[in-house]
Amino acid sequence: MPGLRTEPSTGWTTRDSADLYDIEAWGEGYFRVAPATGHLTVHPTRADSPAIDLVEVVERLRGMGYRTPVVLRFGAILEDRLRRLHDAFATAIAEHEYRGEYRPLYPIKVNQQRGVVDELYSIGRRYGCGLEVGSKPELLAVMATARDPDRLVVCNGFKDADYIQAVVLASKLGRSIIPIIEKYSELELILEHSRRHGVKPRLGVRVKLARAGEGRWGDSGGARSKFGLFANELLEVYETLRRDGLEECLELVHCHPGSQVQDIRSIKDALNEIASIYVELARLGAGVRLLDVGGGLGVDYRGARANVDSSMNYSIEEYAADVVSRVASACEAGGVEVPTLLSESGRALVAHHSVLVFDVLGRSGRGRLEVDQTLDQLEREHEELPAPIHDLFGAHETLSPERLLESFHDAQQARQEAVQLFSLGYMSLELRGLADRLYWSLCARAREIAATWEDAPAELDELEAILGDVYFCNLSVFQSLPDAWAIGQLFPVMPIHRLDERPTVQAVLADLTCDSDGRIDRFPDADGTRGTLPVHEIERGGSYYLGAFLVGAYQETLGDLHNLFGDSHVAHIELDGSGGWSISEIVAGDTAADVLVYVGYSPERLHEALGHECAQWVEAGRITADESEALFGFYGDELAGYTYFEDGQQVDHPEEAVPEPATSRGDSRRSAARRSSRPIR
Question: Can you tell me the distance from the alpha carbon of 256 to that of 258, in angstroms, rounded to the nearest whole number?
Fold first, then answer.
């Protein structure tokens, strides 16, 4: 069971904090603790990279009027991730004397934010990086921007006639665009529109693998997968093309082995199957020359380097070597030319580049646990003490390392009996409170004893979470970390400053929503997970900042408006070439007016309605004119303000000072332009 030493912080170093939060295991060289300041720093290109102090970034943003929570994006990390993936395949291609190429694809569903897609497409030019889309809106986003004819746009997902016609016409604009046939009916539509517009189609097929993947997303592959063709359907597609003399148009074979695959053996099995299918299609006479091995390349969120949830037991380099070697072996055995290799490793590309920083607003604990009175004093004050009180005092007296579990079990039984007596009216509230203090103080002592053991009893593990404080944080888990709530995804979380001090508090993190699920109470640990996070005492009048890491994949797009907490601010941080950094762009978070429009309200009408009511009550003498003005002004300010706590600081958005009239949901920034973008020169 994890525990914290409670000695004074003398002797604590930043190295101790780095070990405690296991930064090296999950950070992959991008995050370090600065010994001089105790702040967490970002190193976008890992080795010998300039350091970006996270606290300095946050304070600079505050000076500009932007308060936490804020998502910090580091474009140089995106470039480093893409470079590392490319280099891993380049090394494997050289080692195996592979006679083909590798080109990465970025599936924009992983993070569709314009800044992310644009940056990856821009820096991806030197690596031949293409894009993958899975819906009509994603196709619309890419069609107008992905203009490089030498880079692929691969189209997955459900396709109607309009979608397919757009793909066919885009190819006439010079786009290198390939629709993937997920079901046979799509082939008929593609051929129909190709004939109508005089285009020779470029086609791909997605294959349903026989074996499902493993882990949380195992069913996204295999026979139960949502998309793809079974072997008999694949042959039917080929025969249709052959009859029309279009077998050369079948260029690409695609599969999806799963998402966040944690065991390399699952990837090896998928590679063996898809490589064999590619070889057979080539031998039949199809024009295949591209093999897309799909997604699946994982991210080690917990740093365990193991086949466990939220981790992975392989590296990017091992993944690339397996892809290259297994495809090469299958093609050599089948006597066909090796294909150009593609992969859709979106999570591995973008997870590391975003950090969510938020502040702590307050805390609550289990209250005073000490019992000031002795049993003798209580017996003099009460005619007859209930038996559970005697038993709880007895459990305290016998508590020792040798009798730890025995005393703990006695205390559990006594507290249960005290609750029953109180419920039946045989115990006063005063004595019920005393029973609770006796029980929880014993639990605290038991936790301290168990924390010194290498192998503590399993039933005491939960004491860390039960006795831990609750730190109330300025964020919405549902908006900023939805996977932590929805599927139990682990994200590394830690303080970004005071790392030269020993943390003396164990806490769970609660968000601003009124939902009991709005909390983070599972944290990655080198040996598994822990129920609390080691944190520092909150200093009166000071800010305490925490960071959630590896949040660049899926979290922004999946976030919802629970309790109408909207999108947080986003700041793009860039290296300036001289060892420093700059804020290149800020994307303002949602205002209250934005989110109200999204759920069907008109902020202008709400404001006017309150104004009319205030005027009526002033006339009736219920409130004064000054009170009416204060309430009306507060309402207008808050409509234009951040949905999160701003600590009295108003973000300066002159264009949003008065809510604009909204006639439909399409007027909201979330559904139309998503968020305003303010470049910083």
Answer: 6
What whole-number distance in Å separates Cα of residue 77 and Cα of residue 598?
Answer: 33
99-344 placed in CATH 3.20.20.10 = yes
Buried b (16+ CB within 10 A) or exposed e, 244-279: eebbbbbbbbbbbbbbbbbbbebbbbbbbbbbebbb
Q: Find the mean pLDDT for residues 517-522.
A: 91
Domain spans in the chain, listed from the N-terminal domain onward: 14-74+354-365+468-587, 99-344, 375-463, 592-679
pLDDT at 318 over 60: yes
Residues in contact with 641: Cβ distance below 8 Å, sequence separation at least 6, in sequence order:
591, 592, 650, 651
pLDDT band for 668, please (50, 70, 90 cuts): very low
Contact by Cβ (8 Å): 341, 103:
yes
pTM equals 0.86
User: 666 pLDDT band (50/70/90 cuts)?
Assistant: very low
Contact (CB, 8 A) for 519 and 61: no
- Model confidence band, residue 8 (pLDDT cutoffs 50, 70, 90): very low
Cβ within 8 Å of residue 38, ≥6 positions away: 14, 17, 497, 498, 499, 500, 501
pLDDT of amino acid 366: 62
Whether the CB-CB separation of 215 and 262 falls below 8 Å is answered with yes
pLDDT value of residue 156:
93
Do residues 294 and 254 make contact, with C-beta atoms less than 8 angstroms apart?
Answer: yes
Return all residues near 340 (Cβ < 8 A) that are at least 6 apart: 100, 101, 102, 103, 289, 290, 291
DSSP label of 30: S
Please name the helix (run of DSSP H) or strand (run of DSSP E) that holds residue 585, with its range, or none.
strand 581-587
Q: Say which CATH superfamily domain 14-74+354-365+468-587 falls into.
A: Lyase, Ornithine Decarboxylase; Chain A, domain 1 (2.40.37.10)
Average pLDDT of 310-336?
A: 97
Which stretches of 301-358 are DSSP H helices?
316-334, 346-350
Distance CA 403, CA 407 (A): 6
Select the more confidently predicted residue: 211 or 41.
41
Domain 375-463 has CATH 2.30.110.10: no
The order of strands in the sheet holding 31-33 is: 31-33, 40-42, 52-53
Inter-residue contact 558 to 482 (CB < 8 Å): yes
SS3 338: coil
Rounded CA separation 195/619 (Å): 74
